[in-house]
Amino acid sequence: xxxxxLFGPPGAGKGTQSEFLIKEYNLFYISTxxxxxxxxxxxxxxxxxxxxxxxxxxLVSDEIIVQIIEKTIxxxxxxxxFLFDGFPRTYVQAYILEGLMLKLNTSLxxxxxxxxPEEICVERLLNRGKTSxxxxxxxxxxxxxxxxxxxxxxxxLQFYREKDICFSVNGLNAIDRVTHEIETIIANELRxxxxxxxxxxxxxxxxxxxxxxxxxxxxxxxxSTNEMLEHExxxxxxxxxxxxxxxxxxxxxxxxIVVQLIEMKIIDAKNVKGFIFKGFPRTLVQSYILDGLLKxxxxxxSMAFELEVPVLDLVNRLHERGKTEHSMPYDASTAKIVKxxxxxESKTLPVIARYDQLHGVTKIxxxxxxxxxxxxxxxxxxxGAKHLR
Length: 389
Fold this sequence. Notes:
About 60% of the residues lie in helices and about 15% in strands. It is of the alpha/beta class. It has two domains: about 5-190, P-loop containing nucleotide triphosphate hydrolases (Rossmann fold); about 195-385, 3-Layer(aba) Sandwich (Rossmann fold), CATH 3.40.50. α10 crosses α11 (about 240-250). The radius of gyration is 26 Å and the shape is elongated.
C-alpha cells in the first residue's frame, strides 16, 4: 500500500500536486480541508464547530479531525493507498496517523513537504481570495494560518525526519519540476520496500515455472513448500525424517513444520528484494501465519496473482506431467487429479478471497506460451509496483 502525506504551507500548491498523485498512483484522497468543508456544507454538528474555528484562522481540534479521518479510511478498505493532504498537522496527529496505519496493517511510505517562503504564500492566497469567495482568504486570517502552521505543523517534519521518510521539494520551481521531484522521491522509496508476491493457481497452472522465472527477473527469493519439504527429505535431516514418517502414515505435514521451514528460508535469504510464495498459504490458517511472519520482519504482502486455466486443460497438463520425472503422486489417474483439484477449491479459494479483499488478487490468463504468460505477469508486477498494496 502506498501512503503519502503531502505537506506545505497554505498556498504551496498541494492541491495541484494532489491531482497528479491521485491519478498517477490510484490513491484515495484525504484532504482535511475538503472533508471539513463537506461537513460545514452539510450543516452537521462537526461542521458548525469547525466553521467557528476556521473563520478565526485557528486549526480544527484533533477530536473533530480524527473522527472524520478514521471514518474515511475505514470506509475504503479497498483503496490502493491514501494521499493525506493537511493531516497530520501536529505532533499528536502524527502519532494518531501511526495508529490508523497500524490498524490497516500498513504504514506511511513518505512525507513530501513543498517548501515556499511566507510572503509568496500570502501573495498566492490573496490572489486566490479574489475569485474563491472563501472567508478565510484575507490577509489577517492568512497570516494567522501561517503562524499556526509554523508553530504546530513544522515539528511534525522532524518526527518523520527521525523515521527517515521526510523529503522536501522547492515550491518556487515550475509545477512540472515540482511534480518530477515528487515522482523521483516516491520511486526511490518504493525501491526500498520489499516486494512480496503470492502466486495462486490450481495444480497444473504453471505456478512453479512462472514463479521461478519471476524470482530471477525481479531479484526475489522463490519459496515453494514442496521444494523445501523435498530438500529436507533428500538431505535426510531430522525434519525430513519426520516428513517421511508422516507421508508413510498417509498424514499431511503439519503447519508447525512448514512454518519452521519458511521462517528459516526467510531469515537465510540474503540480498533479495522480496519473496514470491508458491504453495503457501494453502489454508486460511496458513494465511494468518504468513501475515504474521512477514509482519515480524516489518513487511507484508505487496501483491497477489492467480493463474487461471480451464479445468480440462489442467487435467491434460497433469496427465502429461505424470509421464515425467516431475510427476506428483496425484498425477497417476484422472480420479486422483480431480480429487486434488477439488481439494484446492475447498481449501485455497477462501484464501484467495481473503487476499482479494485485503490486497486485491489479479487474475492472469494462464493459457498460451510460457513467454506470453510470463509477459502478462511481468507487466502487472511492474505496473503494480507503483501502488504496492
